[in-house]
Each structure stands twice: as C-alpha cells, then as structure tokens.
Design a protein that fits this description.
With 226 residues, the protein is of the alpha+beta class. The chain is built from five helices and 13 strands. Strands 2-1-7-8-13 form a five-stranded antiparallel β-sheet, with no helix packed on it. A five-stranded mixed β-barrel has the order 3-4-10-9-6.
Amino acid sequence: MVDRYSITLNADELTLALGVEVPEEYQPQYNAAPTKSLPIITVQNPSIIDFQKWGLVAMWTNNKAMSPKFFNLPLASVLTKPSYRKKLKNQRCLIPMDGFFVWKRVMKRKLIPSYFFYPDKRVFCVAGIWEANEDQNAFIMITRPSNDLIAPFQDDMPAILDVAATKKWIAGEVDTELEELLQSASSQTLLFHTVSPRMSNIDLNNQVFIQPAPASDQDGNYTLFT
C-alpha cells in the first residue's frame, strides 16, 4: 500500500522542473494523502497542473479511512481488467512527487514510517489514471511490485516512470508498450530514512515529516527496530 508522498518544491521550482504552468493555489505537500486535492498532470492538458482528489470514491468515512483499492491500482489490474485499459486511452495522468513514504511493521501493532527519495532529491512522476466525479475529479496511483530495496518493507511501490517513459505516458498511445513503460526504472537508487510517526495524521502538513527522525512507534516511544 502506498498512501503518502511529498511534493515539496515551490511553484517556480515546479515549473522549472516539469515545464508546466502552476496555478496560484498550489502549495507544497509534505504529507500528501488520500482524500486530499493534489497536483497532477493530465493527458488532456499536459502543460498545466490540475488539482484532483486522490482516491476513486465519492463518499468518505468520518475518519477518512478507505480501502487501498480506491487509491492504489496494481499493475496486474491495469494489464488485465478491460475497464482500466479503457481508461488508459484518454484518462492517463502523471503524479509529480519528490519522495514517498512506506511503513514497516515491526510488531503486531507497531509501524515505522520511512521516506524514500532520490539522492539528488529530484522531482519524478508516477503513473496514474483519473475519472470525472460530480463534486471533484479524482485520480488513482498505479503501483507495481516492490524492487529489492523496498521489498523488505512492503510488497508494492509507486509505478515511477523514467524521463522517457514520462514523456510517452502523457503524450501518446501506450497500449503496445504499456507494461514496458510501467516497469521502467531510473538508473539511480533510492535513498531512505525513518521519519516521525506524526505524519500518520493526514491533517498535518509539515516539512519536518521528510526529515530524518529516530525510529519510533505510533505512541512516540523510541525503539531499536528499523
């Protein structure tokens, strides 16, 4: 499950990095989470940032909890389910980010969050699809099986696109090379460090959430587990 990421550049930096127009309402996100309205780039208008809700559901529970199937779309489903392959024709999107969080279970009820990012802290894009809703359009993130670095933490990771795949994903037909695009990978290896468990609260958005912090449980108790 991938349920947190960051996009921390300011508007000018994001324009320079992606070559897109960034609306005034854009704000850096240090704790992007499902149910939030977040910046994406759609195939319909690849020159400007759009804002859509993360998660393909219309109704949210009071605690904003939801099944991963509404905000993560496994690669296997993209490749095998006709409903998703149809959306790939004209409802593709890019999800820009500069890092993402994963959780490592160390005890039955203890989870430790870690932040993954590239050594140069560059912005990268993850594949997604979007759909129209009555109140606000929404997107879902495509995930793929974890690489060797992330596998000890969890079974899946964002479908990160390399530079060439990013351009193809947003610009043209992808049917014939879909699997190849979604499995493309950067030659750089991701780095990671543990972070504060306070980022489990999706209502908080603070730059300290991407900074190194000693591994601790959800009650803030420090532990030797990493």
